[in-house]
């Protein structure tokens, strides 16, 4: 990446801040519903604010995408199962060798468990994950003709596949809209007061009710991108957040713009992303293969 491009990537939050200034809104301005003595936010106001946040995120993360490398529905399914309790980066560094050894469900169904375990060991919980991968591959071979099904009710019958994984596969491999509630998504939508639920299915239902179905999949990517790059769990970069004026939880993290900018991750901080093979429009650097970090 050129120095000019590095600079452009690093300055993305600042550019968004300038836009806020043009509309006479300070990036530290809090929404009326969050101010002391203000009336509770109405349902109509909540929907409007939520949809505005989505529009703002769509501008900032116009390149948002699933951060797992995959070339077909089976690879995405396997990668998503492996992503539990680890980073997408570690999964992406692990799957090239895995898919070279087991390119189809039939191949993985016949895998030697110990050999499979060693291939996926870097992702953690490798024994349980190997059991799930062999189990779901057997199910795909025996019940679905070696093809990944395109229905949620079928996907969730596969070993190791829950509603979150099913929505990832449906939305990104089949074009079926769905909201993916991972830890980042749940944390952010609660900070934004879109829901107060902790149960993932309730969170999904609450958020789906705020948006047209056509937005669900891309909304998920945008929120997760923002959670990984800016709105971190322990120390959100509030002072560098492009949607700070719309956030009722502004101030939970670092509000000084310069200090907040240092907290930005991946391409927002000028560093590599999580995919070894990112989409062509990704503005950052690709990740390094396993062992090359």
TrEMBL record:
Annotated region (Disordered), positions in chain: 1-41, 267-293
Entry's cofactor comment: Binds 1 [4Fe-4S] cluster.
EC number: 4.2.99.18
Statement: the UniProt record of this protein carries the keyword Metal-binding: yes
Reactions accelerated catalytically: 2'-deoxyribonucleotide-(2'-deoxyribose 5'-phosphate)-2'-deoxyribonucleotide-DNA = a 3'-end 2'-deoxyribonucleotide-(2,3-dehydro-2,3-deoxyribose 5'-phosphate)-DNA + a 5'-end 5'-phospho-2'-deoxyribonucleoside-DNA + H(+)
Annotated HhH-GPD domain residues: 82-229
InterPro entries according to UniProt: DNA_glycosylase (IPR011257), Endonuclease-III-like_CS2 (IPR004036), Endonuclease3_FeS-loop_motif (IPR003651), Endouclease-III_FeS-bd_BS (IPR004035), HhH-GPD_domain (IPR003265), HhH_base_excis_C (IPR023170), HhH_motif (IPR000445), Nth (IPR005759)
Binding site for [4Fe-4S] cluster: 231, 238, 241, 247
GO molecular function annotation: class I DNA-(apurinic or apyrimidinic site) endonuclease activity
Pfam families named among the record's database cross-references: EndIII_4Fe-2S, HHH, HhH-GPD
Cofactors (names): [4Fe-4S] cluster
Similarity comment text for this entry: Belongs to the Nth/MutY family.
Protein name, as recorded: Endonuclease III
Gene this protein is translated from: nth
